[in-house]
Every structure is written in structure tokens, then in C-alpha cells.
Amino acid sequence: MLLEVKDLKTYFHTRRGVVKAVNGVSFTLDAGKTLGLVGESGSGKSITALSLLRLVPEPAGRIAGGEILLDGEDLVKKSAREMRRIRGAKVSMILQDSMMSLNPVYTVGNQVAESIIAHQSIPRGEVHSKVVEMLRLVRIPAPERRAKQYPHEMSGGMRQRVSGAIAFSCQPSLLICDEPTTSLDVTIQAQYLKLLKDIQRETGVAVLFITHDLGVVAKICDDIAVMYAGRIVEMAPAMELLTRPMHPYTEALMKCLPSLDKNVSRLPSIQGAPPTLLQMPPGCSFWPRCPDVRPACKEQYPPFIALNEHHSASCWKLS
Amino acid sequence: MTADKSILLEVQGLKKYFPVTEGLVFLRTAGYVKAVDDIDFELPERQTLGLVGESGCGKTTTARVILRLEEPTSGRVCFQGKDVSRLGGADLRRYRAAVHAVFQDPTSSLNPRMRVGSIISEPLEVSGKIPRSEIKDRVKESLDFVGLNQDSAGLFPHEFSGGQRQRVALARAFALRPRLIVLDEPVSSLDVSIRAQILNLAKDMQEQAGISFLLISHDLATVRYMSHRIAVMYLGKIVEAGARDEVYSHPLHPYTSALLSAASPLRPGDQQKEVVLTGEVSSPLNPPSGCRFHPRCDRRMKSCSDTEPQLKPAGADHQVACHLY
Lengths: 319, 325
Description:
The complex is a heterodimer. By secondary structure, chain A is α/β, with parallel strands linked by helices. Chain A has a domain at 3-30 and 39-80 and 213-258 and 269-318: Rossmann fold (3-Layer(aba) Sandwich). Chain A has 11 helices and 12 strands. The mean pLDDT of chain A is 92. Chain B is built from 10 helices and 12 strands. Chain B has an 8-stranded mixed sheet, sandwiched between helices. A 4-stranded antiparallel sheet of chain B has the order 2-1-4-5. The mean pLDDT of chain B is 88. The interface between A and B is large, with 42 and 44 residues.
């Protein structure tokens, strides 16, 4: 097991109270596998990712509890200095908007070289060939020429590949992708997902894939964890979750998506909106929107119930 | 098109080129971005036309020309038989009242300093169609229709969630009872669980008030749910058009097939044969010769790089611009 997250809690202290952005999240991830973390905005999926890298904006936010075990070592206990050696080398990240994550005043080659120089002791003279090799890995045509270009000279899909080249440059064992394809067009998105899959097959990297798009998740993930209001509400292998969702939220989410191959005269919709994290309803956080509310739902948060070896969900109707 | 359906909007040979200039002092035109290059379509009353394509294909420019936010380079947009770009004075005011738009991001399309009540009443006042005394009732009615309570009128946009803001934008578009609403990616910025609410609301509007929609989206599933007819655009051209079921069940153009395949089948049973396109969308500044899609096409032939295919009928209510047919 490469990564084990146990009961992770990340809180933000604001003037109006404590926001429990991540409220007891646990999951595991094996090498070479992809876990999809799915949720709406504000569900805590991005903060979970930032917590793994210890990049939660401080001092407002902090990891209030839990363990993040990477190869058995707890990242929560690492010093800032040790974390710097881990970020980019063992754990790297691809963000949504490559225009924001790349530096506009440096060439692309320079930026790929930066992480290589920071983490690897290879002679200066060989850095350039390594950069070109990385750009080739992410299938950038004419990498020697492209290395000399600036981010604005590239298309969105190409820039996102450069982010990939930086992320893969130190052979990380864990890659966190936070909505990497959201800003890309559909056909470019399909290309990018295929590229990620190919590289994963070649390098055996484990991927934590964060997205709100269940369609993307269906394509790339082995397992899926669905988040709602700071907690994982259901976790299962991708096929099983998409064909037999057990939590009412997952079920409703699947139903309210328009279909590509069927004509539907009216979509079922989920009433209301996700709760504000400052004013959480008592009991289960989904009950105000749930079609199947029971008295217990309003009183206590339901436990995580295992339906079989791999599939579990937290809902009172399953107990 | 059946004869009993009257045509609300007709676009004929529409072109919109943007000049690209060079030089600092003595500007000269170095070329044109052919954002929209000779497209035709019709939108009947009470129907929805879905305009699908990737970014840069010209779908939003088309919408802007229809809204008369841009003047066409050539070609015509006819609304109820009248050329929109020739309208002026009272006719133009009437057109503005009959055609509204809802944009992708409600945060930027609603004035942050205006209360929701004024946001919705502003077009009513400007149009001059509604007596002052009735404006308040109209605002109430619109808020009611989109499912917001009456107190919302006194609040500012930032006090709402994204989904509610999009409801306000719909209420504003609906208040004047327009004939046509241009929906430009209306749900792309919303959360998945909220999208269905907004789409259903738009459908209700169409059923109850007989409004036509021009829906612009890159999401094929959304378009399938909402539209009666669809048109697929690529680099300023319509490459395939037709009745919804025709296009979705028998996509003819290789680009449409690729889009459908790339659109992430959600349920495992939906899995289709995967077509991953190579290469990127070419630049509209310098589009490829012949068929604009040929550098990325997996079924290209010799003639594709030489002659440009025309949009031709291929089956009942189905047109495609491809040399294969």
C-alpha cells in the first residue's frame, strides 16, 4: 500500500466559526492504481489534496487530526524542510489551470529543468537532455524547439502536457491531479486522459484524481470515492459504483446527469443546494436534500457500512 | 422542416471575420480570423437548436451576431422575416425586448451593485412596454417562476449561490416574455447536482411561454436533453446538422463521432468505440485547405485536402459536410 489516509481532518478558523472542510476522510491507494475523488465545489476534495501536500493555507487552515501515511511515513509529522524534499519528488501535482500554474516569464524548458535541478543530482550538462526527454514523454511534438517557448505560445492542451512533464520529471510515486482536464475541450480532454493512462502504465505511478465530472472518472479510475460536505459518503470500484450506487447522494447524482444515448423527457433533479460548511445540519449532512429521510438521519451521522469487501457507504438506510 | 412550424430565426450565409493587425503605429491588416465562415441555419418557433463545438469554433461569435453585439461581415440574420442588422429605432427596441441571453457565468453577468429586484426590472423599464405600475408584479411573477422567494428581490447577487444566481439571470431573461433566449453554456459553471434544476426550469419556460432557445454548449449530453435540432460547428463552419435523434443515432461526420466518443460515456453500458483524435484544433487565422477537419480526421481521403465539402442533405432532416457522403 502506497498511501493510507486515516481520519484526516482539515479545519479553517474564520471569524464566523470553524469550517470543517475535510471532516474525517480515510482512504487507501496502491501503486499503479487510480482513485477518483468526486464531489461538488465545497465538498472538500481539493482541500484533501492540499492536505496531502501540506499546502493548506496557514494560519487560517490547519490539519486538525489524522494521519497521512506515504510508504508508511506520516506526512503530517514531517517538518517544513522535509516536506520540501517530498513535494515534487515523491508526490507531485497537476492543477486545473496551466496558465496559472506555469510561470509566464520563463521558458517551458526552464520550468521543467527547475524541478529536476531541485531534486536530482545530475550534472548541469545533462539537464537539457533530461528536459527534452520529459517533454517527449508527454508526447509534445518537436520537444527541442518547444522547450525554448513560453507558456503563452502554446495551446491549453499543450500547456497541460508541460505541467505533466514537470510533475513526472522526478518519477514521483504519487501524482495528485486536481481537475486537470476541466479547462480543456472534450476531444483534447480525451487525449490527455489517454496520455495519463499510458504514462501510468509505463511508470507505475499512483494517481489521486480529483474531479466533479463522473464521466471522466468512469474513464480513468479504478476506484471512486464520493465526497459530500467534507466527508466521503461512498467508496467502491469504479464499475460497481457507477452501476450500483448505494448512497442516495451518489444515486441522485447519477440520475440527474443527462444521458448521451437516450432521450429523456424530464431529468430528475436533486432539490436544494449543498449545505454551507458553517451551518451544517445535525445528523447526516445530506438529509435536507435526501428523498429517503428517516428519523435517525436527523440525529446522528451514519457510520460507514461495508456492503462487501470493496464497497462501503455511510447511510442509515443500509444498516 | 414541416410547413406548419413557422421559422422564428433564420441565419443565411453568415460570416464574421475579425481583422488581425500588425505594426505599432502604422497598423495594417495582416489577415483575418474567420470566426464564423458562411453558416446557415433555421430556428422554428418553440424549439431549441443546440449549437455544439469546441472552444474557438465560432459558436459564441454566432450568438453575439444574433444578439447584435457584433455586426456580421456578410450574410443575414432574419428574425420573424426581418433582417436584424437593418433594424433601427423602435424596431430595434422591439427586437431587444424579444431576444434575451443567459450567459455562462452569472457572477459576471449580474451587476454586483444592483439588488436582484432592480436587475430583473431594468429590462422591463427600458423596453417601455410595461406600465410602471405593473413592473413590480412582473418581477414577483418572474421570481416565482424560477423558484426564488419574494424576499430575494431585496438582496444582492453575492448573497446567492451559483445556481440561484443563474435562476436570477433566467428570471431577468424571462421577465419580458421574449420570443428567443440565447443560452450560452448556461450550466457549465454550475455544480452537477444543480444543473438538472436549471435545465428543467428552462424547459418549463419553453413549454409554458413558447420561447425558442438557441443553446450553445460543448456538452453533448446537455444538448441532447434540451434540443430538438442540433448543429455541430468546427472552425467556423457547420459540419453536421439535423434533427436531434438523427444526429445522435447516426452521426455521419467523423468529427461528430469523435465528439460523441470523447464525451465520456458515464454508464458502463453506454461504452462506445473510442475514437481519440490526434492533433489540436487548427488556428482559425490560417485554416487548413479543403476540409478544415482533415488534419485530424481518421478517415481522410485525397480529395479532403483539396476541395472543401459543402453541407449536403444526407437522409431525412440530416445534413453533413464531408466527402465520405
